[in-house]
Specification:
single chain, mainly alpha, 3 helices
Length: about 100
């Protein structure tokens, strides 16, 4: 029975046990550790990740920008901003005195 006809017969239960005991995975086979996540691990990204934007590449190629994406620019006098910087007292921040 060195080389049986039809190839070796594989039992899924014994293959799973062999994988667990010998850490022998098939080439390119994904390792599943059978964790019970409270979320879908296929949709979740660990660590820092930017929010996915639908049609992000198409929006980057268009010259016009949607109005709701960017805040409106408000122009004020410099003296008003200087007064806010001196009069506003932010706890734990350095204060610009001139």
């Amino acid at each position: 029975m060195i080389a049986p006809r039809g190839g070796a017969q594989h039992d899924p239960a014994s293959d799973a046990l062999y994988r667990k005991t010998h850490m022998n995975y098939a080439p390119g086979e994904q390792k599943h550790r059978d964790y019970e996540w409270k979320f879908n691990p296929n949709d979740h990204v660990f660590g820092y990740a930017e929010k996915k934007v639908a049609n992000g590449a198409a929006m980057a190629l268009h010259a016009e920008r949607p109005e709701e994406m960017y805040p409106k620019t408000v122009i004020v006098k410099k003296t008003v901003e200087d007064h806010k910087a001196v009069a506003g007292d932010l706890l734990g921040k350095t204060k610009n005195l001139g």
